[in-house]
Amino acid sequence: MKHILQLLIISLLFSCAEQEESKEYFSPELIAHAGGAIDSCIYTNSREALEQAFEKGYRFIELDLLITSDSVLVAAHSWGEFNQMTDSAHLGDTAPAFSDFASRKILGRYTPLSAHDINSFFEQHDSIFLVTDKVSSLDILSENFPEIKERMVVEAFSYHDYCRLKDHGYFRVFYSCLAQDLTATVLRNLSSVEWMALHTSVLDNPLFRLMNKLWDFNIALFTVDDKESIAALYEERVKMVYTNFIEP
Fold first, then answer.
1. Residue 235's pLDDT is what?
2. Residues 183-222 pLDDT 10s
3. Is-contact 154 174, C-beta < 8 A?
4. Which of 53, 85, 139, 217 is the most buried (most CB within 10 A)?
């Protein structure tokens, strides 16, 4: 009995050691959030941020997508923020025309991106993946990024968009915790969702805890800028992390 007890204790110690080692080496894929920080500035969605993220070795680079007043797809986190960052705060959240958008400088020095610019950059650099936010319409995305869907990760804001994008061969599709039909999807369709994009605050939500027990899905978490906190995500099925400052 004494020897059996010793073996059990040794086995338990090895198990704990293996778990700690797994946590220590746990390394989710990093997503450069809104192009990634540049000169300590975030949310620029700029050409310079995109180029820097590529040079730093990010494999996944997120850009927020919005539509100008004359229906051109461009990169911006929100019109209110874009106007403020381009000395046009008096315009509030009004969408500019594309010519106005393209002529501005973000924070006085960074270059705005159109969908055409983004598509060209990712076609020229075939080792990286475009992660999108704000727009999840298959029609809009396929029209603007016709050649790179196998290297696109799309955050879907409805279950309908999620299914259409999955069916049309996009590399990875996240169902967003900000989706308009979140409650209905949790009740009826969550078992078919492979990936969810979740905010860090959701991890402590009782509903998420229940979802985590009942369904098997991977998590892309936004936004994490403290490298030390990543190890704590080991138990949460977090496989991808949006970040402004953590570098690969």
1. 64
2. 999 999 999 999 999 999 988 888 888 888 889 999 999 9
3. yes
4. 53
Q: How many CA atoms lie within 13 A of 135 on its CB side?
A: 25
- Residue with the two structure tokens 């985590």: 212
**Coil, helix or strand at residue 22:** helix
Residues 194 and 185: their CA atoms lie apart, in Å, by: 13
45: left (phi over 0), alpha (psi -120 to 50) or beta: left
Q: What pLDDT, in 10s, does the model give residues 152-193? A: 999 999 999 999 999 999 999 999 999 999 999 999 999 999
CA dist 126 and 151 (Å) reads 8
Q: Region 66-84: what's the mean pLDDT?
A: 98
In sequence order, the β-bridge partners of residue 242 are: 31
> Strand 29-32 to strand 195-199: parallel, antiparallel, or no bridges (unpaired)?
unpaired
Domain 30-243, CATH class in plain words: alpha beta
Find where tokens 């010519």 sit. Answer: 99
Residue 27: predicted pLDDT: 81
Distance, CA of 60 to CA of 152 (rounded, Å):
9
Encoded tokens for 106: 């973000």
Could you tell me the residue ranges of all domains in the chain? Answer: 30-243
Proportion of the chain in helix, strand, coil states, percent, rounded to 5: 45, 20, 30
The secondary element (H helix, E strand) that includes residue 139 is helix 138-144
pTM of the model: 0.89
Mean pLDDT score of the chain: 90
Per the CB < 8 A criterion, the answer to whether 11 and 223 are in contact is: no
How many helices (DSSP H) and strands (DSSP E) are in the chain?
A: 9, 9
* Start-to-end CA span in the chain (Å): 50
Report the C-alpha gap between 155 and 178 in whole angstroms. Answer: 10
Structure tokens at 153: 């990760």
